[in-house]
Design brief:
Strand order of the largest sheet: 3-2-1-4
Number of helices: 5
Radius of gyration: 24 Å
Largest sheet: 4 strands, mixed
Shape: extended
Oligomer: single chain
Distance between the termini: 84 Å
């Protein structure tokens, strides 16, 4: 299925029918999860809806693609990482976790884009996808070290922010007598 004729800015509507088939309304053709994955890779704007109810199923379809990717080849998430993500559901930090993951993925994408731009400037004629893959394989330990440093700095900033919020809250409520809280020191006259 050729995606090149479609404009990237228009939202593409994909309908999911009860028989689990996906129908691309732009091309009037049935498509597969592999086709939707290709749309994602091409940065196409699309939405998947239930053909009967009109409910938005985009996230569900994207999760199916992730499940297929995790099942085959080399998984991106360890069992421990997935268990930790599951533990955030229903937790007070659920919203923070989603934003945290999204922003960190964006940081990784920005780093990747910048490295690609810099490498193109250095080796424009010799830097194809295979060369880029080889370079990334050689740089994996350095990149992991850089990411570990980034995560450690983020953790330290978060702890610092948490301490500041706790101090501000404590200062705000010093005048209120809460059970179990030490009384505020009385001023000498």
């Amino acid at each position: 299925m050729s995606q090149t004729t479609a404009t990237q800015s228009e939202e593409r509507l994909i309908k999911k029918y009860p028989n689990r088939r996906l129908y691309d309304t732009r091309f009037s053709a049935y498509i597969t999860l592999a086709d939707i994955k290709q749309l994602v890779l091409e940065h196409a704007v699309f939405r998947v809806v239930d053909a009967k109810s009109g409910d938005d199923l985009t996230r569900s379809i994207l999760l199916q693609i992730i499940l297929e990717e995790e099942s085959g080849g080399v998984p991106m998430f360890s069992a421990n990482a997935l268990a930790q993500i599951i533990r955030f559901y229903g937790h007070a930090m659920q919203g923070v976790m989603g934003t945290f993951l999204e922003k960190n993925i964006q940081v990784l994408m920005d780093i990747q884009d910048r490295m690609a731009e810099q490498s193109q400037g250095l080796y424009p004629q010799h830097f194809g996808p295979e060369t880029w893959a080889q370079l990334m394989n050689m740089q994996t330990p350095a990149l992991q070290n850089m990411m570990n440093n980034y995560i450690e700095q983020s953790r330290n900033l978060f702890v610092q922010m948490q301490d500041q919020m706790q101090d501000q809250t404590r200062n705000l409520f010093t005048g209120f007598p809460f059970p179990g809280q030490p009384e505020a020191p009385k001023k000498k006259k």
